[in-house]
């Protein structure tokens, strides 16, 4: 292994480990906030509202984060993301149930917005680093980019699942405030590791000089971004609020719900990591992968529709029907997400990969925002059944968009061979 190849692999491992640490606390945060304010008596719509600024802030953070990562380097932006998350945790820890409802909701909303900025600055920096480190390692290896993307994304989501369980456990053992303090301390250690381990200027490139240049994306990137809005809106329209509230209202404890969501997300992450073995590969990296994205999108769209039909038939145990359906949904969603995450880097120009990735994940955040907004509204007025119908509609839209994806990279933009 050459020195450059070893350095690329080392940096990839460090970025992945740092993002694991961040994701662990981010998953725990969701459970801490959701269950704490559900206990305080807030409605499903209000619970969804608490996460809205978290997602809305992520839209801008992803978009500008890609440009900042290209201008100032990925390491600096990863560090900024970790520090911002720590600040968000400390702001949330100041919350008191004795505050009036308006002040409490406003404070949590703003603190969640800070955490949303942190999440997507960190995500954009970390996922952009995959393109850089894979190129450093010698970007001609058969299938390596897909494998690195799949492993990074899958392991990250497995860690997020552990975070869901950790959040429920922390709430039960030490409570909301002390749980946040413990996580802030852990992230501080992760941040020190990033600062002292990664090259300061990693990923620094000539950033776009104007908004017009920044928005000038290829057809593939634009279509993937639109599909991503529908894909993640379809997940969060029932997963963020609908599923945990439905299970808790059906008699499950906080720990049981957290454990189930943890196991689901871990399994989802493992399937993501295995996606390269489930998708036919092509020498050009697109001609088989794009059709695979289309077929997997169509299959996924059928799942929530079938779950809704099953629940409409009034089964003896609705929670069992939902849990089994969610397991099937997780498998299909994981493959879809992994293929999309690979395709954005396959379409991206290597020189400004961070900007392309930032644009794409801004769409990801927009999808989550719309999904969460719809989730609270649909669950409050139509229960889990309405959430499932909303998910199916969004997924069919995602499938229609994938039909237009190009099977060749834009030859006018410099790319790295990714097969």
TrEMBL record:
UniProt keywords, alphabetically: Membrane, Transmembrane, Transmembrane helix
Transmembrane segments: 12-35, 47-70, 77-95, 180-200, 247-271, 292-313, 319-345, 357-377, 383-405
Keyword presence, Nucleotide-binding: no
Protein name: MFS family arabinose efflux permease
Taxonomic lineage: Bacteria, Pseudomonadati, Pseudomonadota, Alphaproteobacteria, Hyphomicrobiales
């Amino acid at each position: 292994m050459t020195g450059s190849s070893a350095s690329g692999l080392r940096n990839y491992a460090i970025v992945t480990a740092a993002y694991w640490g961040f994701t662990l606390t981010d998953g725990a945060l969701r459970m801490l906030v959701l269950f704490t304010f559900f206990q305080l008596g807030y409605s499903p719509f209000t619970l969804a509202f608490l996460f809205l600024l978290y997602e809305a802030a992520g839209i801008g953070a992803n978009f500008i984060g890609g440009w900042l990562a290209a201008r100032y380097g990925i390491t600096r932006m990863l560090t900024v993301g970790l520090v911002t998350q720590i600040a968000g945790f400390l702001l949330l820890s100041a919350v008191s149930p004795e505050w009036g409802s308006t002040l409490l909701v406003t404070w949590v909303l703003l603190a969640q917005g800070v955490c949303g900025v942190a999440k997507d600055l960190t995500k954009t920096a970390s996922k952009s680093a995959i393109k850089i480190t894979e190129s450093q390692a010698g970007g001609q290896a058969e299938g390596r980019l897909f494998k690195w993307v799949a492993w990074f994304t899958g392991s990250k989501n497995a860690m997020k699942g552990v975070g869901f369980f950790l959040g429920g456990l922390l709430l039960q053992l030490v409570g909301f405030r002390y749980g946040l303090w413990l996580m802030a301390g852990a992230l501080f250690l992760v941040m020190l590791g990033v600062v002292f381990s990664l090259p300061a200027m990693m990923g620094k490139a000539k950033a776009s000089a104007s908004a017009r240049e920044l928005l000038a994306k290829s057809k593939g990137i634009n279509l993937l971004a639109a599909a991503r809005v529908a894909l993640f809106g379809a997940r969060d329209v029932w997963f963020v609020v609908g599923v945990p509230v439905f299970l808790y209202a059906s008699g499950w404890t906080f720990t049981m719900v957290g454990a189930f969501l943890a196991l689901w997300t871990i399994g989802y992450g493992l399937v993501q990591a295995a996606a390269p073995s489930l998708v036919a590969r092509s020498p050009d990296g697109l001609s088989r992968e794009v059709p695979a994205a289309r077929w997997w999108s169509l299959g996924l769209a059928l799942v929530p529709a079938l779950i809704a039909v099953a629940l409409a038939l009034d089964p003896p145990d609705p929670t069992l029907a939902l849990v089994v359906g969610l397991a099937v949904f997780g498998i299909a969603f994981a493959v879809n997400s992994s293929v999309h995450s690979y395709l954005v880097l396959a379409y991206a120009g290597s020189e400004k990969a961070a900007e392309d990735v930032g644009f794409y994940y801004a769409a990801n955040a927009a999808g989550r925002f719309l999904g969460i907004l719809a989730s609270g509204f649909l669950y409050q007025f139509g229960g889990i059944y309405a959430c499932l119908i909303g998910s199916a509609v969004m997924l069919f839209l995602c499938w229609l968009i994938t039909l237009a994806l190009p099977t060749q990279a834009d030859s006018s933009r410099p790319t790295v061979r990714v097969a």
